[in-house]
Amino acid sequence: PVYVRHNLSWQGGTSGKLDMTVGPKQTMGRTLEQVKVEIPMPKGVLNCTMTVTQGKYSFDPVSKTLVWDIGKIEQSKLPNIRGTVNLSAGTSPASANPTINVHFSIAQLAVSGLKVNRLDMYGEKYKPFKGV
Question: Are 82 and 54 within 8 A, CB to CB?
């Protein structure tokens, strides 16, 4: 239900550029909420200087993790983060391909598309109602 369009390119041996956009793919008209992106950076990264169009970001220099807390994504305006990733001298990130972890929630939507029309229960003393 979510797509990530990203580009991380290393320039020389001192820095790199990150550009990432996150958007809804198939949400059946529902809104993506509580969206958070986590990127564990290579060990040679010193810091990240980013500009975001929505939400806020933080970089933990100890765990080398970039966290972008987006919040709610509207269909009309897709959030974007871009900026510079600075490396320590003498490190080579060329072989590093960091993973991107995306956390999100979509209220009242089963990703499988499963819908329940009727539920029959036997052997219970109470009468079930919609919502249970």
Answer: no
